[in-house]
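Please fill in the sequence for the structure shown.

STRUCTURE ENCODING:
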């Protein structure tokens, strides 16, 4: 039952809201709101206690169900995606961004503890394994916040030394770890991207600069999809025109030029721009090269990241 309840909030992924921008920004919304999950926990606990023929244990079942439901979005909060915890009172997308969406060092202690508790059921030490897994995984979350602060300090010092004054700063871990951190510094007309490993010998972060067409954004800022991405990313987006297609990318997830969320939002009908129903653009990634770079850079090797891969924009927008 814990597994079922812990999975329920993510069933919103199967809802098609009509276009990929809506699907992205309405995920982790009402289904992840603490208020609605608290309301839902009461009938769910009542049902489970009746199915299990334990109506006298309703209060205990309610507590178990409530914890299973609300710890799901609270864990999602630690990622950078954006979780609308406070609905219906606020639709602000919260995100600490101190852990990657998949991190084995968080998951494995929980998995080992749960499997051991089931395997040793009836023995006195069974729940101690489960508790140990929970303590270790929670301690890892606390470590991730501390590591993020170390990387943020290095990022701010490096930006200051290089005369860069960002209007937004993002510091978030690269895939599967909390040792190598990606830094995005948003400035007028573009953004800087750099990487800092806690194993680096030099705290100075090297940055690469990339352009974002602010004038293009000004022309399209009132289009719903563009405004929605700008809001959802807290301004950490890039917009550009390629082959007559205007694309907008969420700079928080992925790395240049391969982002998890890139959308075509307008086409050029010279000299005007015509908004279109958003289309997702898949960015090709050389996984082997990326993993090789990730492992070596994580260990402190000052390698430049692989920058290959450009998505085709020959899409059918009719």
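FILLED IN BY: designer on duty
SEQUENCE:
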């Amino acid at each position: 039952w814990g597994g079922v309840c812990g999975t329920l909030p993510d069933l919103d992924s199967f809802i098609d809201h009509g276009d990929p921008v809506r699907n992205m920004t309405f995920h982790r919304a009402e289904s992840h709101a603490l208020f609605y999950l608290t309301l839902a926990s009461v009938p769910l606990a009542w049902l489970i206690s009746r199915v299990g023929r334990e109506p006298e244990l309703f209060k205990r079942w309610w507590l178990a169900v409530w914890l299973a439901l609300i710890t799901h979005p609270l864990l999602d909060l630690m990622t950078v995606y954006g979780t609308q915890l406070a609905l219906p009172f606020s639709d602000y997308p919260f995100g600490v961004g101190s852990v990657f969406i998949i991190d084995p060092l968080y998951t494995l202690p929980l998995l080992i503890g749960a499997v051991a508790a089931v395997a040793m059921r009836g023995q006195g030490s069974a729940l101690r394994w489960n508790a140990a897994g929970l303590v270790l995984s929670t301690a890892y979350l606390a470590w991730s916040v501390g590591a993020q602060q170390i990387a943020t300090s290095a990022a701010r010092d490096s930006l200051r030394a290089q005369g860069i004054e960002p209007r937004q700063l993002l510091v978030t871990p690269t895939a599967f770890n909390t040792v190598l951190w990606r830094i995005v510094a948003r400035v007028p007309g573009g953004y800087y991207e750099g990487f800092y490993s806690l194993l680096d010998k030099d705290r100075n972060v090297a940055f690469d600069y990339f352009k974002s067409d602010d004038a293009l954004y000004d022309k399209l800022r009132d289009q719903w999809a563009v405004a929605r991405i700008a809001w959802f990313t807290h301004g950490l987006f890039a917009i550009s025109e390629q082959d007559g297609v205007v694309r907008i990318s969420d700079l928080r997830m992925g790395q240049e030029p391969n982002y998890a969320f890139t959308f075509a939002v307008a086409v050029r009908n010279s000299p005007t721009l015509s908004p279109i129903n958003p289309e997702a653009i898949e960015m090709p990634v050389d996984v082997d090269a990326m993993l090789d770079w990730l492992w070596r850079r994580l260990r402190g090797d000052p390698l430049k990241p692989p920058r290959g891969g450009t998505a085709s924009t020959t899409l059918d927008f009719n």
